Amino acid sequence: MTPGQHFIISWVTANTVKLDRKSRICITMSGLLPDLDGAGMIIDKINKYFGTHTGYYEQFHHVYCHNIFFGLSFAIIFCFICGKRISVFLLSLLTFHLHIICDMAGSSGPNGDLWTIPYFYPLLPDIHLTWSGQWELSSWINSLIGAIFFVLALIIARYRHVTFFELFSKRVEEVVYETGKGRGFFKF
Ligand SMILES: [Zn+2]
Asked: Distance, CA 15 to ligand 1 centroid (Å)?
């Protein structure tokens, strides 16, 4: 799935339990950080601009950050950052695994190439998880799932008075909140 879809799914998951802003941000980040290993795309594009072909994106994406050890490490780090909250640890592991499941479900290429996930990398690098029913990254199914979670995010915002803008900055969220409040969006 795309980072935007991972973002909204992770933020909604972070709001399944009543937690503070820092905890919600950490849990959401656990569902976003796996795609750090896709940063090779930027280097590939820069190299292409200078006339060199590299394949860092294909080589590294879904490898270094899409494994249980990466997910577990950040779940532990975030648990400690948030005052040793077990709920942060568990929900961080959940958003990480939702990311893995969503990638296995809907990330195939336009010519049907299946992404595989070396879940136990680097301990057991040859074990790859995949699913033969994987649909395309650009499929309407991904868009529909993203839209459903966006609606859920709006419902959470309406009744809990928090919005996903909290990840960008507290100031931005305050502006969004005041605007929504002025238009009667929030339910009191
Ligand atoms: Zn991913």
From this structure: 21
